[in-house]
Amino acid sequence: MKIKISLLITLLFLFAGASYAQIFISKAKIEYEVTSDVKKTMSNDAWDEQLKDKLPRFKTGYFTLTFADGKSLYQFDRWGEPKLPDFMTRGEDEKKYYYDYNSGQYSIEKNVYGGDINIMDSIPKLKWKVVNENRIIAGFNCRKAVAILFDSVYVFAFYTEEILLPGGPGSFHGLPGTIMGVTIPRLYTSWIATKVMVNDINVSAVKPWAAKKSITMTDFKSLIKERTKDWYSPDDPDENKESQERKARFIWEILL
Predict the structure, then answer these.
(1) Which of 41, 105, 175, 220 is 20 to 30 A away from residue 124, measured at CA?
(2) What is the pLDDT of residues 118-150, one digit of tens each?
(3) Residue 184 lies inside a defined structural domain of this protein
C-alpha cells in the first residue's frame, strides 16, 4: 500500500512539473505568418486596375520573434509564395524590433524613403480591453483583447499566458502574456503564430544593433507627417476620399 501511495505522489509531481513547464515559457522562438490583402489596398485608377489582374491577392511573409530574459527581437525571415514584384515588398524585409521589457526601452529600424531610420524610445502603454473569447493558436490557448490605435484603428489580438513575454509581433505588446495573433481590418493584414520553438534558442542574438543616429517616435511621426503633407489632393471629392484613406493606411503601416 505504501508503495502504491508513493508511486501516486511521484506521478502527481511529474504531471505538475510538466504542466509548469508548459505554462511558464520564458525563452523561445516564435514564427509568425503575416498576410496582407494586396488588392484591397490598391486604388481604382486605370493603372492599378490593370496591375491587379497580374498580381496574387495576398502577400505573405514570415517573421520570427526570439526572446529570453525579458528581451525580444522581431525580424524578417522569408517571403512566402507566390512572389510579388520587388517594389511591393521593398524595405519590409529590413524591419527590426528590439524590446527590453526590463528597462522599458525599445529600438526599431525601418527602411523609409530608401534609407534606414532607427527609432529609440520608451515602450508606450497600449490600452487593451480583454474580452471573453478564446482560440487555440499554434497549440496554445489564447484569449482575445481589443485596442484602438491612431484614434480609430481597431486591433484584435489573441494572447497566451502560457508564454511569459508581454510582447508579440512587431510593435504589439502590453498584454499579460505573448500575443500569438493580430488582425487589423483597416489594414487588411493579419499576424498569426505558426509554431513555437523552445530548443536551441540563440539567446546571444537578442540584443540591440549599433546605430549611428536614433530619433524618438515623436520625431519619427513628425518626419512622416512632413514628408506626406502634400500627398493626394485631387479635385474629385470621391477620389480625394479614397486617396486620403490610402495615405492614412500608408502612415499607419509605417508607424506600426
Answers:
(1) 41
(2) 999 999 999 999 999 999 999 999 999 999 999
(3) yes
pLDDT the model gives residue 19: 41
As a three-state string, the secondary structure of 6-42 is HHHHHHHHHHHHHHHHHHCECCEEEEEEEEEECHHHC
- How far lies 225's CA from each of 13, 107, 117, 188, 250, in Å? 58, 20, 15, 22, 11
- The number of domains in the chain is 1
**CATH for 151:** 2.50.20
Domain span at residue 147 reads 24-214
Q: Phi and psi at residue 152, in whole multiples of 5°?
A: -145, 0
For residues 118 and 136, what is the distance between their CA atoms, to the nearest angstrom? 35
pTM across the whole model: 0.86
- Locate cell 484613406: which residue? 245
Establish how many alpha carbons lie within 13 A of residue 17's alpha carbon, considering only the half-sphere containing its beta carbon: 6
Is 170 inside any structural domain?
yes
Span 82-91, pLDDT tens digits: 887 777 777 7
Contacting residues for 108 by C-beta, under 8 A, at least 6 apart? 95, 96, 97, 98, 118, 119, 120, 171
Is 48 inside any structural domain?
yes
Cα radius of gyration rounded to whole Å, the chain: 21
